[in-house]
From TrEMBL, chain A:
<dbReference type="GO" id="GO:0009061">
    <property type="term" value="P:anaerobic respiration"/>
</dbReference>
<dbReference type="InterPro" id="IPR024717">
    <property type="entry name" value="NapC/NirT/NrfH"/>
</dbReference>
<keyword id="KW-1133">Transmembrane helix</keyword>
<feature type="binding site" description="covalent">
    <location>
        <position position="182"/>
    </location>
    <ligand>
        <name>heme 4</name>
    </ligand>
</feature>
<dbReference type="GO" id="GO:0009055">
    <property type="term" value="F:electron transfer activity"/>
</dbReference>
<feature type="domain" description="NapC/NirT cytochrome c N-terminal">
    <location>
        <begin position="19"/>
        <end position="193"/>
    </location>
</feature>
<feature type="binding site" description="covalent">
    <location>
        <position position="146"/>
    </location>
    <ligand>
        <name>heme 3</name>
    </ligand>
</feature>
<keyword id="KW-0812">Transmembrane</keyword>
<protein>
    <recommendedName>
        <fullName>Cytochrome c-type protein</fullName>
    </recommendedName>
</protein>
TrEMBL record, chain B:
<keyword id="KW-0574">Periplasm</keyword>
<keyword id="KW-0349">Heme</keyword>
<comment type="similarity">
    <text>Belongs to the NapB family.</text>
</comment>
<keyword id="KW-0249">Electron transport</keyword>
<keyword id="KW-0408">Iron</keyword>
<dbReference type="Pfam" id="PF03892">
    <property type="entry name" value="NapB"/>
</dbReference>
<dbReference type="GO" id="GO:0046872">
    <property type="term" value="F:metal ion binding"/>
</dbReference>
<keyword id="KW-0479">Metal-binding</keyword>
<dbReference type="GO" id="GO:0009061">
    <property type="term" value="P:anaerobic respiration"/>
</dbReference>
Amino acid sequence: MWPRIKSWAAMFWRTMRRPSVHYSLGFLTLGGFIAGVIFWGAFNTALEATNTEAFCTSCHEMHDNVFQELKTTIHYTNRSGVRATCPDCHVPHRWTDKIARKMQASQEVWGKIFGTINTREKFLDNRLELAEREWARLKANDSLECRNCHNYASMDLTRQSTRAAQIHQRWLGTGEKTCIDCHKGIAHHLPDMAGIPQG
Amino acid sequence: MRDKPVVAIALLAIVVAVAVGYAVGRKSAPASSAVSEPVAAAQKPTAPASATEARPASNQIDAIRRGVPIAEEASPPVMAHVENTDIKRVRAYPMQPPTIPHSIDNYQIDKNSNRCLLCHARANADRFQAPPVSVTHYMDRDEQILATISPRRYFCTQCHVTQTDAKPLVANNFKDIDTVMSEQPVQKAN
């Protein structure tokens, strides 16, 4: 078995090292370029297809639990009609971070296959753990996904209610706290928060 | 298959039936809607917003209908907005639960979490400069002080409510004791 693999690899290596006999350099470069464009386009299209609300809610775990809760919040429907969909908050927008998150999501595929949260009861039992993972992620990146839309520098504090303006200036403006410290459970219901600091 | 012709005839019959049904259905559909249109127009809400101020009509049976006759559909009044001024209101009477001077949209108050206590718990009030919950709310019914909010006081919105800019449905001429006393002529002046 092993010698056969070895000889096959050696043959492959020789072929790859040898200059092309039949195809011109121009054909190979241009062909490689076009193939690369097609491959990249397909890869990115598939990646973006997994980055949509429709894809996320195609699993009943997401559709029946967290999506129903999102529907009642201002991030789903509001006066100006801007909707934050699942990936806007749960997937980083920058490419490297996005790929890293998508790799982590393979664990979620595992969970889906083996039914880790495939009933309402299992979901509620695991809800705190799931939520804590997201809080830790947002705390670590300074609430990056919130700040993709909500930029402190762009906030018109005079158009906020006085208490909101005060608290934002005092805690967010000084950088002592980040969005997720106070705004937990704004898009989904909170699990049992006994003993967990909010704000 | 010996009854090939039979099958063919049956198929043809089905096709013809579907075609006839489709044609008849198409012709009758607009006709029926044309008939029903004037009826719908007659039943359309004829009560404008001003009708809410009007005197109750003779044939109305329910005051909540705001004077709109029972056979007509009322157009709902404009939705009221929650006052979000953050200015504390005076209590209308002693022991009144203070009203909430800000909006509380989507605040989660359940077994798992209490959004109000994020700011109004005694431990957090200084950080958010919010009025802390009264110490009575930390007492059980035997007046023993508890470490956390008393379960019987947990659901804030049972007593504390927001106020909207809606017009009162019923006029209220309640006067508090200070007003009553200031209106009384001073009898024992000298």
